[in-house]
Amino acid sequence: MLNVRSVLVTGSNRGIGLELVRQLVGKSKGPEWVFATCRDPEGPRAQDLKNLAAKYRGVRILPMDTSDPSSIQAAATRVTEHLQGAGLNLLINNAAILRPSTLESETSEVMAEVYKTNVIGPMLVSQAFWPLLRKASQESSQKGMSCSKAAIVNVSSEGGSIATVYRWDLGHFINYRCSKAALNMLTRCQFLGYAEDGILCVALHPGWVQTDMGSSAGQAPLTVDASVGAALNTLGRLTEKDNGTFVNWEGAAVPW
Ligand code: NDP
Questions:
Q1: Which residue among 70, 73, 94 has the greatest number of ligand 1 atoms within 8 angstroms of its CB, and so is best to mutate?
Q2: What are the residue ranges spanned by the domains of the chain?
Q3: Residue nearest to atom 23 of ligand 1 (CA)
Q4: Which of 236, 228, 251 is closest to 18 using CA atoms?
Q5: Strand pairing of 151-155 and 90-93?
Q6: What confidence category does residue 175 fall into, taking pLDDT thresholds of 50, 70 and 90?
Q7: Cα–Cα distance between 169 and 232 in angstroms, integer?
Q8: So what's the pLDDT on residue 204?
Q9: Which atom of ligand 1 is nearest to the CA of 39?
Q10: Is the CB–ligand 1 distance for residue 176 below 6 Å?
Q11: Cα(186) to centroid(ligand 1), Å
């Protein structure tokens, strides 16, 4: 079972990110701190998150634009201050964008924009929060690896699976598929690089979910509630043997 003291979610003002925060704080033994980050906490798109944070003391809304290195650094500084010497247990790199495209219509500008958000973002965020994650691992008395101790969860997509090229019929989404394939490689690199720090690293496919992004591709079968509920259960079950894997919301292995 997931039993984290502190967790940070990127892109937490809507969709899967918002539901992650909602379900984390709704747990009977929820985290002490949930750092709910989004790019514009003062804007109208953060109103649902603000309403949620108003009900739970442990939720801290912080600005973080994952495509802006200085914004990432500023968030890391604030989280470090909040934690007062303690580590961060769980980092969920959730924020991402998708731009509809085909092989014919794809452009270098869009490819670069999506790569920056979906790949460089999680890389820089992980880099910035790595000292806190390592600290959480060092200060824990738990044996082995787990998401409750210290972990990076990269929210990926089976759309980036080279083996299945999930639902090509629904849309080509060249920028998105390529970015998620690269995020999967980043996950493997992090798995190798952060193993000695005791930080578990996984890529997570949340399913095809009814969010702004999911619904832009058609009739998504999964509610955000069902996807996130199952995904949190899955995260709670991950151990050392799952380190460096690509799993779906139910915990099944997804082919790279
Ligand atoms: P949504 O489009 O509903 O939400 C995306 C979130 O990411 C928003 O909160 C958005 O913030 C945020 N975001 C985008 N760019 C940035 C940025 N530069 N800095 C900070 N936040 C940013 O998507 P979902 O909730 O559906 O997707 C969440 C994750 O799940 C993504 O990684 C996605 O690829 C993955 N996924 C989703 C699937 C689905 O079917 N829905 C399927 C497979 C994977 P803002 O409001 O400011 O735009």
A1: 94
A2: 6-248
A3: 213
A4: 228
A5: parallel
A6: very high
A7: 29
A8: 98
A9: 20
A10: no
A11: 18
